[in-house]
Every structure is written in C-alpha cells, then in structure tokens.
Amino acid sequence: MYLWRSLAVGVLVLVVVGGCSTDSEVSTAPTASPSATGPVSASDEPTIVSPTSAAPTEPPTVTIAVAGDVHFEGVLRERLDDPASALLTATAALAEADLAIVNLETSVGVGGRREPGKRYTFQAPPTAFKALAASGIDVVTMANNHALDFGRTPLPATFRAIRAARSHRPSLAVVGLGKNAEAAFRPAIVERKGVSVAVLGASTAGSDPTADSTAQWPATDTRAGTADAIDPRRLLRAVRQANRDADIVVVFMHWGMQGESCADDVQRTLAARLVRSGADIVVGSHSHTLQGDGRLGRSYVAYGLGNYVWYTPGSSPTGVLTLSTRPPTDPAHPAAHARVTRAVWSPALIGTDGLPTPAIAPEREDFANDRARLRACSDLRSP
C-alpha cells in the first residue's frame, strides 16, 4: 500500500502543517531518523517542524533476484525425496536477496490425464512447493504452458500443497494461477524494509506456434486456470492497480518464441505497454535460452531468463539476475517509477544433476559478451 511513499507523504504533511516552508525549501539532506518530527515545545505555540530534519533520506534499496524455469523432471525428481534440501545447493544467489522469484514450469499435484497431443508434459508431486519454500524462494509464478499439463483435475491438490508450504514459510506466494481469473491476475504484495513490492505473473505462450496449444487453460470468471495475457487488457489493468497499491511493481511474463534469443515484436510491444502501465521491472521466460536485459524507458526489462533448474544439462547459460531497486522518492508524483540502481548476473551452467553450477572465468567472459549482444538485438539500453 505504498508503504515507502506513505511515509514520505506523512513527512510532507507535517511540514505543511508547521507552516514554515514552501515546496522549494523542502530538503532531503541526511537526518538521524526518517521519522523525526523536530523539537518538542513546552509552550502553547505551534511546534515548527524543520523540513531539513523531517524529510527522509534516500529510500531503502531492495534487492530482487529473479531466475528462469524450474521443474522436477528426470534426474531432479528424486531430489524431492528430501524437499528440505532439494534445492539448497542451487539457490544461494536467490536466497541472499531480499526477494527471490522463479517460474515453476510444471503441473503440481496428483492425478489427471496428460494433455493429448502434447510433446512434453511435466508433473511434480506436492512436495515441490516445500522444496521451493525451504530454498528461500519467496514468489513463484505458474503462468506458463506447463502448469496444466495434466488438466484441471490436479488443481485442488495444487492449492492444498501451496497452503501446506506456506505453513512452513508464510512468505511463499504463488501468482499467475488461480481458482478464477481474478485470483490468477492477483499480485503477491510483499513487504521488505518498509517497501511494498507487487509481483504479477502472466503468459502469452499460447501465441507461440512452436509451443503446444494452451487455448483451453486460461482462467475465466468461473473456471480455474492461468493468467493468460494474449489479450493483455486485464493484465494491464492489474498492473495499473498494483502501481497504486505498491511501491515497486514486478511482472514475470511467459512469452516469446522457444529457442529464440532475441525478443520478438510481440514481447517488445507488450513490454512497452507494461512499463507505461506502471511496471518497474519486467522479466520473462519460455524461450529456454537467455534473452536481452537492460533499460526500457524508466524501467528494467529482462526478456528471457532461460532455464534454471532443468533436467537437460548443456551449454545454454543460465544464472540469477539480482536487481538493486529503490522505490520512487517523490510522493507528489505517485505514478513515478522505482529505480533499478544496479543489475548483476551470477552466471551458471546446468550440470548433469539438473542444478545450476557457478560459471568459471572463461565462461563468465563468454556470458558477458553474450549479454551485450542480446541486449543490442532486443533494443535495450545498458544498465
């Protein structure tokens, strides 16, 4: 609920009530305490609040770490025999951040029937959420083209498993999947350091002709499913509302074309609309390879984060992108964007165990060169 801006607005109200300052006199000089209200007067005279001592310093920086696709197929399945340690060796860079977000690219639950005609179908047992919670993940998006690989039958078990995992880690949230469209598009709003961060998940994977059809999976007003944004109007409304309710808005998209390293026109157009609607950070997955990251207008976009915990080892690079982010500082302009002050990749490669392994020196150099190339082909500016 605009926690940081609410604090700043409260300070300005105190300044106005004191009647000693014009807008041009308000200072953001460092103070001993952002909540200081000036000296206490023992007389009947009104207390004069000094804007220099009352105005907050720089807003706190929140680190937001994002990674790409996670599932528990193949060699990864046995790791769920011990969910408490299943991903601990793979998530250090995520757990170090104030907020960690990934895409869970699988159906979760029991029962159901494989979607007919799908080339790849994934299903993990309910302990998948416990594994994510134990590893330090805060928000999981399930708006993707595998969340309903076994239809809607497993969904009651999915929702029960989410509730069970939250009993161990109350901060765990799942977005992009819900009992109806309202729930699927509802953001998770998480508070860190007095700053509220809204996270939404949505998918346009149904528009990818190389992917299996997802036309039957979107949530509706009366049916459970994923947050589908092929028609983006509902998503854009949700982003605008989130921008009113939170200090920082993150949108995790499942979009683009599988195997393509450069963002396509659909991604670029939607990214621009999300930024105009109030998204401060837009990240994505689905291509199963890295795509460009950098600045788009006032916001930060990472079109494709690649695979992260995946059953196929190989040369495709992966990693964790950590974004140091400050909320808007000017309460007079509630539509102002948060500011990403630093963007740092922790490069990795997926090993034979399906887990990311930190890249070594030559691989890190290749990663940096690829990153520059991918940014250029996606028309993003350097961080």
What does this protein structure show overall?
- This protein has 383 residues and is an alpha/beta fold.
- The chain folds into two domains: 52 residues, no CATH class; 316 residues, Metallo-dependent phosphatases (Purple Acid Phosphatase, chain A, domain 2, 4-Layer Sandwich), CATH 3.60.21.10.
- The chain has nine helices and 18 strands.
- The strands form four sheets. Strands 1, 2, 5, 6, 15, 16, 17 and 18 form an eight-stranded mixed sheet that branches. Strands 8-9-11-12-14-13 form a six-stranded mixed sheet.
- α4 packs parallel to α5.
- The longest helix is centred in the last third of the chain and has 17 residues.
- The protein starts with a helix and ends in a 6-residue tail after the last helix.
- The relative contact order is 0.14.
- About 12% of the residues have low confidence.
